[in-house]
Amino acid sequence: MAIPFSELNKINPSSVIELFEIQLTVGKHIATGNPLGLPTIYRFHAGANMNSFGEIRYRSNSYQRVAVRAEGFEKKSGGVIARPTITFSNLGGIIRDFSTNQLITMSDFLQAVNTVTPNNDLIDAKFTRKMPLASALDNTNFVGNNPFGTPSTNRLKDEIYVIDRKAVENRQIVQFDLVAAHDLENKIIPQRVVTRDLFPAVGTFI
User: Fold this and answer.
1) Do strands 126-132 and 155-169 pair parallel, antiparallel, or not at all (unpaired)?
2) CA 127, CA 163: separation in Å to the nearest integer?
3) What is the per-residue pLDDT for 75?
4) Please, are residues 175 and 70 in contact by the beta-carbon 8 Å criterion?
């Protein structure tokens, strides 16, 4: 994965495109063995980049336009770790009813998940924020020739979170709180035993 410093330092750099993925776990969010063959990864975007109100194709994967607001990703040098929120309109969602091919509400989506694990509400689902540059998008995103030429590999580092809890659910919206993958309850950091072979001063006091 290339970190596009040279591209970002241009006078007119490519736009950064914000894409999202939610990955479910079979046995927790989907029935064990996935007997219905349901997708485990849902890809979407908020339509806030490139004025796109439809599908975005990136690395041959389709990211659907969804009524969603993601915020709170700002990084700070001190203080608490950022805990972003993701808010979906409850008039539609990121999953389709396979019998009708119509979007179902997020509440109906959660109800399906909760039949597998009661009261789960997508807790522990993996949430990834991808930020490729516009120059990295597939050729099929552009009418005619790709103005950037051959798609590049330029993108910022993926940000990986986990859904920590459902914060709000009503007729209008469903909102989730996210935590960084290294900010989970009961997670031990660092995950490495410190010994005197590596750090001779361990266990000594001045």
Assistant:
1) antiparallel
2) 7
3) 76
4) no
Residue 121 CB neighbours (<10 A): 19
Express as a percent the part of the chain with pLDDT over 70. 71
**Per-residue pLDDT at 134:** 84
Contact 50, 69 (CB under 8 A): no
- Pairwise CA distance, residues 172 & 170, whole Å: 5
| Phi, psi torsion values for 204, nearest 5 degrees | -105, 155
Compute the distance between CA of residue 22 and CA of residue 30 in angstroms, rounded to an integer: 13
User: From CA 69, how far away is CA 86, in angstroms rounded?
Assistant: 6
| Residues 106-135, mean pLDDT to the nearest whole number | 93
Task: Supply the pTM of this predicted model.
Answer: 0.80
Give φ, ψ of 62 to 5 degrees.
Answer: -95, 130
Mean of the per-residue pLDDT values of the chain? 81
Residue 139 identity (one-letter amino acid): N
Token reading at 17: 């495109």
SS3 label, residue 168: strand
More confident residue, 101 or 112: 112
Contacts of 31 (CB under 8 A, 6+ apart): 116
pLDDT of 1 reads 54
**pLDDT score of 142 more than 80:** yes
CA Rg, the chain, in Å? 20
Q: Which one, of 167, 162, 165, lies nearest residue 180 by Cα?
A: 162
